Amino acid sequence: MTVHAYFRSMLRLVLFVSALANCFAQDGGISAKAVEVPETVMAKRLDHVVAPKLPEGAIKKCSNAMVILKVAVDEKGKVSDAEFVSGYDELKDSAMVAIKEWTYKPYEKHGHAIAVRTSVSIFYLGDGESFPVYMPDGKGGVKGGNIIPLPPECGSGPVSRGRPS
């Protein structure tokens, strides 16, 4: 190998290592090192939930609504960041305020607590009650994800009819 080829190889190596270091250093925040975990898996780890307050007049009494958030959970199980993904804009602020108070049992990988990102679906009932769609069942599993009926005073709700023959 000639001296010129050696220096060219060394220069390429230095540039490659430098570029690689810049890639890792660009976003040193939680999102850069957080692992994506399904909502139902993290729901089993819910430790403390604060129910969002339904803003006055946000939805009608005989209506239900849902908000979906993307959240970052740090190594200690605290929600460190939240982003509104979908749902009624009128419910966004109450969901964002409440989610910052939620805590999870820390998620572990190879015996070490790690930061994660997950989705959270919050269900709002027209009577003012709200809760996560998925919650721990107390037995190590998760409950929820079912359709919630309207309150009895709202009647049976829409009737689904089969296709005409």
Model description:
This protein is α+β, with helices and mostly antiparallel strands and 165 residues long. It has one domain (30-145): TonB (TolA/TonB C-terminal domain, 2-Layer Sandwich), CATH 3.30.2420. 26% of the residues lie in helices and 30% in strands. The chain is built from four helices and eleven strands. The chain has helices at residues 3-25, 30-33, 39-43, 89-99, and strands at 35-36, 46-48, 64-73, 79-86, 103-104, 107-109, 112-114, 116-125, 130-132, 134-136, 142-144. Strands 1, 3, 4, 8 and 9 form a five-stranded mixed beta sheet that branches. The radius of gyration is 24 Å and the shape is globular.
Main attributes of the structure:
two-stranded antiparallel ribbon, 165 residues, 11 strands, single chain, TolA/TonB C-terminal domain, alpha+beta, 5-stranded mixed sheet, globular, 26% helix
